[in-house]
Each structure stands twice: as structure tokens, then as C-alpha cells.
Amino acid sequence: MNDWAILDLVLYFTGSLIALTQSIVFAHYFRLFRGDHLSLWSISFLSLAIYLGAAGLSVLLLPHYPAAHPLRLFLSCVSLTAAYIQVAALVMGTMAIWRTQRWTRSQLVGALAAASLFGLLTCLAFAFDPAASGERFFLRVGLRLLITGLAALCMGIAIAWRWPRAKVGAQLTAIALSIYGLDLLQVFGVYVVQTMGGSPWSWLKYLGVVGLVTQIFIGYGLVIWLLENERDRAEHASDAAEWLRYFDPLTGLPNRAQMLSRVNQQIQQPQGAAMLLVRLDNLGNIAVASGMAGVDVAVLSSAERIEEIGRTSGLVAARPGADHLALYGSGPGSESSLQRAAEQILLALAQPLFWNGRELPLEASVGIAMAPRDADSAETLQSRAEMARASAQREGPMRYRVYAHDLDLEAKQRLELQSELRAAFANDEFHLEFQPILDGWNLEICGFEALIRWQHPKRGRLLPDEFIAELEPLGLVEALDTWVLNQACLAAKAWQRPGSDPITVAVNISAYSFQRRKFADSIRSMLERTGLAPGCLEIEIIESIAMGQPERAGYSIDRLRDLGVRVMLDDFGTGFSSLKHLRQLPFDGLKIDHSFVVDVLVDSRDAAIVKAMLALAHSLGLEVVAEGIETAAQLAWFQSAGCDRLQGFHFHRSMDQEAVLELLRNSAHARSSRPIPAS
Ligand code: C2E
Ligand code: MG
Ligand code: MG
Question: Regarding beta strands 623-627 and 364-371, do their DSSP bridges make them parallel or antiparallel, or are they unpaired?
């Protein structure tokens, strides 16, 4: 064995050992960090180790076995297959770093299989033809040198071009790969010169060492590159985590922590701080109608509108909670300027918002608080603003309120009321009263409206306005509605007399119960249980129910009408009074609110509006009930206007079941003793 062969052997085996350790290192990193590039680099270096090991063994066996001996052939096949897998895995692994898409499994398997097949073919071609030793040598050695050299050089250039300002790792890899490629091409050049009969400079042989050294540097370069990448990623992730601690990812606005820390700083300043807390009250309905994507759009758009108002009034926008937005700032200025900002917010949010062809109806309430007047810390300031906001929300949609000290007392009383309400259910403190509804033509009683009353142990008989709103936060709305329905149906069952006209009972139902999909089913089983005819039951809903989710309201109305139960739109004329709802939803009738009834005789414009309402309702085939008739003059006006039914203190106040039965007995008696008109 001559010196060159010994040098070759040393290079092969040392290279193989180094490549093996590099492969193990990448496999280890793959277990730690994952990533296609790491598994591919590990495969690439393992293949290189196999290639170099098998090639070394071939050199060792060279003098002892003929070229076509199965052992040498086998070693050649192994080494060449591994050599091309090495190239393919190196190229794909490096490309995996800059590709936006991951390699698919079939792409990976396909490329590596194609590379090994190519290696196998180049080994087997001319394998058994002793006359073709030149061609065989070219395919096994020359072609590999050329392809691997070109691939390494191209990868080196590509990395340098892709990351011109790269850190040490990528630069080292690019340089090492380029030199490695050039070295292989140089060996290929030597081979070509030799084949053409020339004799290259003998020292060129020593350049083989360069290949080994650069191979080591490629490995080092890749490892350093990997560590630098991981450090960048870790820094980026910790920056993102830091950002998320103080900002809301959806809107990019400061979150509660950031807002409170800023407000706490501002409170220390002589000019103090102010906060406008906005709650988006309709997100639940939007979520049901348009999904969480709709909610995101509603929040984002509200945040933009509020931010814009903040910009003009020198306040900063924030998102302190999932359905809360806020404006805060130092030097609050006058209370009236904050009220102006609140009005602007409500006005901006009232502008229609469309998404995916449907409207996202925004509804909001705003609370205002100032420091140091109302609070001495940001947390207290926020809870005071929230207290004011909740109070505004209770007054109705799209309201704002400025914090005042009596709200504290109010909040305490509400808490007390809520615990008393819970007990009221257990202690059976509710009862129903019934207010007669009269036929507009003959003024005979045709039905009653069921009205809930609470016999409070200390405060006596309470009206619904004093407690109904408190049931919702307690989750007792549905329980109350079910109880009222059941009692009302049982009571109405007792009113019916064979041979007489049916007497209806009208029951007020909350939005929550009415929008449930199973609402009509529960009414059907209630009617079956109590034995009341469906035609004797009327459900009253207020307009905001129809407004919030017209589809759900429409579904319940249709199902109830299928059953034969009538549905009335209560308090018509208050709230948003959209004629659109009358057209869209198949109500049986509407109840004109008390406030209009009072005004018809004093305000000619109100009188004109009510006349128009009546004409419109009748043209749509709807029945009209006027509620709150208190005087004979109002009665005369509504009778002459053709109102179908009438209700009010002028006729009767609400009464208990005993009084209802008595009243019905008396009116039946009066009817039967009335002289029959002569025909
Ligand atoms: P509503 O459905 O519009 O009921 C009519 C209200 O007007 C009743 O007040 C009734 O007492 C009152 N009223 C009737 N005639 C006159 C009149 O001539 N003048 C005046 N000033 N008022 C008159 P009430 O009982 O205090 O009920 C208030 C509201 O509470 C009801 O308005 C209804 O929305 C709600 N409510 C009552 N009972 C229930 C119930 O069982 N469930 C639910 N969810 N809500 C109910
Ligand atoms: Mg009513
Ligand atoms: Mg009403």
C-alpha cells in the first residue's frame, strides 16, 4: 500500500468517524428542538459516515479482490447509495430552513428513494464488463464528485445569498460548504486531467485533507447556526410573551395590567386620572348569531372607533376585559368633557356594522370615574367606573353614567336584594295579580294580563320593576318565567265557562326564555299539564327581544303560532320601535305603551303617530291593545280610533285570583240579566 492509499484510508475513516458524531449531535438536537432540517442533517451526516466508511473499506480491500468481486461490489453499492442520500438530505435539510411550507412525507421519502436508486444504478452500470473500467470509474467516482461538489457549492452560495447579514453559524456553513464543493470539484478536475492522459501537480493530492477539514467546519457551522436560530427564537418568544403580558393580542391595545399600572402612575400626578369604562353588552347575542369570528370583528371595530375618539380627546384606549374596552388618561379636565367623550363613544358604536352580509348590532354601556375624586388607586377607579356603567346598563341600552357616591349604597342594596330574591323562591313569596283587558267595542272583559308581585317580608308588596332586572345575574329568569307561566295557565283554566267566550291570559316573558329553542316545546307541555286551550294563552315580549336576535325570536313565534298560542309585541313605541320588526316577525298584535296613551290628548303629533300606528297595524292584520287607559277621555279617543282592546286603571287595577273569579261571575251575571234587544 503506497503513501497515497494510506492517506486516503486515514481521510476516509477519520471523516467517517467525524460524520457519525455529527449525525448523533443532530439527532440529539432533533429530539430537543424538532424541525425537518435537523432530522435531514442527521440523515445526511449518517449517510456521509456510511459512504466514507464503505469507501475506506473498499480501498482496504482493493489489492486483495478483483473489481467485480461481490464484496467490493456490495461495498460500492452501499457507499454510493449513501453518498447520494447525503447530498439529497443536505440540500433538503438546508432548504427546510427557508421554506415557508414543510416538506411533505411523500416529498421526503420520494427524494431520498430517488437519490438511493440513482446511487445504486451508477454502481451497477458496467459492473460486470471488464472492458468498461473507464466508464465504471467515471460513474462511481467522477460523477459523485461532480454532483456532490456542485450541490455543496450551490448550497454555500444559496445560504450566503439568502442571509447576506447572517450571524457566524450561517456564514461559517456557507463558506465551509463552498470550499467543500470547490475541493470536490478540484478532485474531479484532477480525475479528468488524469483520464485525458495528463499528470496533475502531485501536491494537489494533499488537498484531499481540505475536504475533511471543511466537512468538520460544515458540521460546526450548522450546529452554531442552529444554536443561534434557537437563541433568536427564544428571544423572540420571550419578547412576544412580554408583549402579551401588557397588550391584548386581538386589538393591540393595552390590557388591564398595563392600563392599571399607567393609571396608578397618573393618579400620583397633580392632575389625577380619568377612566371611561365601556362594556359591549351584546357580544353574547353576536356570538350566537355570527360565531366567535363575528365577536372578534365586533370587538375590533368597536376598539377602533373608541381609539379614534380617544385620540381626539387626549385619552388612551385599552381592552381591560373580554367584553370591556376603556379610555383612560391623566388630567381628566372637566366632567362634562368626559361625558362628551362617552356620548361620542355611544354615537360611534351606534353606527351600523356589517360583516359577511349581516349586521352585527353593537350595544354598549359606559361608566365614568375620576381620581382622586372617586378613588385613590387604579383598581378602585376601575371598579367605580364599572359600578357607574352597570347602573347605566340597568337604565337601558346605550346609556352612560358618571360615578357618584350613592352608587356604593345602591350596589350594597342590590347585593342585599339579590340574596333576598334567592330566599324568595324558596319561601314562596311571589304571587300573580291579573289586570283585566277589555274588548274595545263592547268593553267586556276578554282577558287578563298576569303581573308578578313579590310579598317582601320587610318591604311589603313589591312591583316587578323593583326586582325583575336582578333575576338575570342570579340565573333565575327562566325559573321565574316557568313559575309565572304555570300559575297563569292554572288560573286561566279556572276562568273558562262552558258556552262562554274564552278568556285569555297574557304572560310577560323575558328575552332569555323566549330565545331558547325549546321554548315552544315547554309551552306545549305546560298547556297539556294544565289543560288550558292554546287559544287562551298570549305571550307578551318586548321589542328588544326581537331586536337582539330576530332569527331566534322568529323561530319561537312561528312554533308558538303553530301551537295556536298568540304572541304580542309589548311596550310598542318605546325603545327602538322599528317597523321592520313588525314586517319581519309574525306577531298577532301589539300593545301601545302607556306613555303614548298619556300623550295623545295633549300632543297632536303623538295623536297623529298613534293613529298611524293603528292604521299600519290593522293593514298588517295585527290587533292593537292600548295599555294604561286612565281617563274617560283617553277611553273615548281610543274607542273612536278603532283600538281593538283596552287595558288600564280607568277600568281595573290588577287583582288576585279570588277577585278575578268574582269579577267574572259578576260580569256574566250582568250579561245574562241584560235585556235582549228586540230584533
Ligand atoms: P307591562 O307588561 O307593560 O305591564 C303593564 C304595566 O302597566 C303593569 O305594571 C301595570 O300595572 C301597569 N298599568 C296598567 N294599567 C295602567 C294605568 O292605567 N296606568 C299606569 N300608570 N300603569 C298601568 P307592573 O305590574 O308594574 O309591571 C311592569 C312591567 O314588569 C310589565 O310591563 C312587564 O314588562 C314586567 N312584568 C310584570 N310581570 C311580569 C312577569 O311575570 N314576568 C316578566 N318577565 N315581566 C313581568
Ligand atoms: Mg305586558
Ligand atoms: Mg307594556
Answer: unpaired
b/e 194-218 (16+ beta carbons within 10 angstroms → b): eeeeeeeeeeeeeebebbbebbbbb
451 in contact with ligand 1, CB cutoff 6 A: yes
571 lines ligand 1 (CB under 6 A): yes
CA distance 634 to 440: 12
What span, in angstroms and rounded, lies between the C-alpha atoms of 344 and 308? Answer: 10
Dist. CA 594–CA 340, nearest whole Å: 32
Expressed in angstroms and rounded, the spacing between residue 520 Cα and the centre of ligand 1 is 23
- pLDDT digit string, tens, across residues 83-125: 999 999 999 998 888 787 888 899 999 999 999 999 999 988 8
Answer whether 468 contacts ligand 1 (Cβ < 6 A).
yes
User: Can you give the three-state secondary structure of 236-288, one letter per residue?
Assistant: HHHHHHHHHHHECCCCCCECHHHHHHHHHHHHHCCCCEEEEEEEECCHHHHHH
Ligand that comes closest to the CA of residue 572:
3
Q: Whose CA is nearest to atom 13 of ligand 1?
A: 628
- Ligand 1, residue 484: give the atom nearest the CA: 41
Please give the distance, rounded to the nearest whole angstrom, from the Cα atom of residue 410 to the centre of ligand 3. 26
Q: Which among 508, 569, 590, 593 is the best mutation to test ligand 1's pocket, defined by most ligand atoms within 8 Å of the CB?
A: 508
Number of the ligand closest to the Cα of 574: 3
Strand locations in 415-482 (E): 430-439, 445-456, 460-462
Residues 507-536 have pLDDT tens digits of 999 988 888 889 999 999 999 999 999 999
Ligand 1 lined by 484 (C-beta under 6 Å): yes
d(C-alpha 17, C-alpha 579), whole Å: 85
- What CA–CA distance (Å, rounded) separates 392 from 386? 10
User: Distance, CA 509 to ligand 2 centroid (Å)?
Assistant: 9
| pTM, full prediction | 0.58
Q: Give the integer Cα–Cα distance in Å for 544 and 437.
A: 24
For residue 253, the one-letter residue type is L
Q: Which amino acid is at 240?
A: A
User: 448: helix, coil or strand?
Assistant: strand
Distance CA(133)–CA(299), nearest Å, equals 76
Q: Does the Cβ of 47 fall within 6 Å of ligand 1? A: no
Q: Are 648 and 423 in contact (CB under 8 A)?
A: no
